[in-house]
Amino acid sequence: MASHTPGAPVFAAPAQLPDWALRSIDLANPRLGAQALATSDDFFAEVARMLNPEPAQFVPGKFDTNGKWMDGWESRRKRVAGHDWALIKLGVKGVIRGFDIDTSHFTGNYPPAVSIEACVSDSDAVDALQAAVWSEILPATPCGPNSHHIVECASSEAWTHLRVNMYPDGGIARLRVYGRPVARPSALAGATVDLIAMENGGRAISWNDASFGSSGSALLLPGRGLNMGDGWETRRRREPGNDWCVIALGVPGTVEKIEVDTAHFKGNFPDGCSLQAAYVNGGTDGSITTQSMFWQTLLPLQTLEMDAIHTFSDEVVKLGPITHVRFNIFPDGGVSRLRLWGKAESK
Predict the structure, then answer these.
(1) 3-state secondary structure of 11
(2) Residue 84 CB: number of other CB atoms within 10 A?
(3) C-alpha–C-alpha distance, residues 66 and 45, integer Å
(4) Strand partners, 119
(5) What phi, psi does 19 have (nearest 5°)?
(6) Is the pLDDT of residue 259 over 50?
(7) Strand-strand pairing, 203-207 and 243-261
(8) Is the pLDDT of residue 264 over 90?
(9) HSE of 199 in the Cβ direction (CA atoms, 13 Å)?
(10) Three-state secondary structure string covering 175-187
(11) Can you tell me the distance from the alpha carbon of 257 to that of 260, in angstroms, rounded to the nearest whole number?
(12) Quick one: 79 and 58 in the same domain?
């Protein structure tokens, strides 16, 4: 019998995200430390694939020893009572705004319904998690084939782990958990840390443009950018002005050193950058963005180079404790990462 060569992969279309999801981060991103810890069954496709930050793909003609290779979590056909489940550790403790339960490429093998529970645990041990107190944060929700299911979560608490339930079995290509990281002020107090890192609770609250690459939130991801698509990149500006991103620190702190990384941005890096900052009490994301135009200078205008880490310490203005920064790039372009190293303070 002639061997069959798999065809070219077909990638899932991106989800059309509402504003609350665009302004959130994926708490289940493995780059933040998220993990699939255990599952009742992943016979056809291992559960870890469900958290892959890349779009799901379908490869015609690709099979493994258990059957058709699928890009996601897929259990076998259940022939007994009950349902399948998976335990997920979030990359960072956070308040969840909603989910994208993505069944892309799962047509006759998607779950008819999915529910999600959450808990807070200091342990990742399966026995400890099974014994934890779980709260349902997404009731059983109908699912369809080959679709992004964007659903909101009503919970206002912060969680560390999820239990994803499929009724009764089937496959989920991707799970995105949109939310806001929660800082640990007592744990960070007095330490020198990256005050805006996602893992420390930092979040981008607004930006004027993200026509290319990721949103402003990409500036806060761990590590250096993987490629030119792993950063914040704006369109080519055809009018006066400059582009900007407003960021909330995970915990108030005094900035001592700033790093601006233009990794992979070569013909499209900004000519320069500056930062403004303030200690903000109260307000909404919208009102804070408006105020940011008038904040004090934290870093005067600095010249940038392509594909390089720029470190500034003597240039940093001593403003004392701050809670927010406005990152200005001139006039436009792409930046991979922004780091604000300094002393954290408890609130």
Answers:
(1) strand
(2) 25
(3) 9
(4) 161
(5) -60, -40
(6) yes
(7) antiparallel
(8) yes
(9) 13
(10) EEEEEEECCCHHH
(11) 10
(12) yes
Q: Are 63 and 7 in contact (CB under 8 A)?
A: no
Q: Give 112-138 pLDDT, tens digit per residue.
A: 999 999 999 999 999 999 999 999 999
**Is 173 exposed, middle or buried (CB count within 10 Å of its CB: 0-12, 13-18, 19+)?**
buried
158-177 mean pLDDT: 98
Structural domains of the chain, count: 2
Average pLDDT, the chain: 94
Tell me: pLDDT of 336 over 70. yes
Residue 39 has pLDDT above 60, yes or no: yes
CATH number at residue 339: 2.60.120.260
The span from the CA of 64 to the CA of 99, in Å, is: 30
Q: For residue 129, give both structure tokens.
A: 């998690």
- Distance (Å, whole) CA 102 – CA 81: 25
For residue 272, the one-letter residue type is G
- Which is it for strands 174-181 and 203-207: parallel, antiparallel or unpaired? unpaired
Range of the domain at 326: 185-344
Long-range contact pairs involving 207-212 (C-beta distance under 8 Å, separation at least 24): 207/232, 207/243, 207/244, 207/245, 207/246, 208/234, 208/243, 208/244, 208/245, 209/234, 209/235, 209/243, 209/332, 210/234, 211/235, 212/334
Tokens matching residue 254: 């005094």
Name residues whose C-beta falls within 8 Å of residue 239's C-beta, 6 or more positions apart in sequence: none
Question: Which of 127, 156, 181 is where one domain is finished?
Answer: 181
Q: Average pLDDT, stretch 305-330?
A: 98
Whether the pLDDT of residue 347 is over 60: the answer is no
Tokens 């700033």, residue located: 258
- pLDDT for position 100: 98
Last residue of a domain, one of 133, 159, 181: 181
Phi–psi pair at 47, nearest 5 degrees: -65, -30
Quick one: CA dihedral 177, 181, 184, 187, positive or negative? positive
Share of the chain above pLDDT 90, in %: 90
Q: What is the band of 215 on the pLDDT scale with cuts at 50, 70, 90? A: confident
Assess whether pLDDT exceeds 50 at residue 2: no
∠ CA 213-215-220, rounded to 5°: 105
Name 136's bridge partners.
117
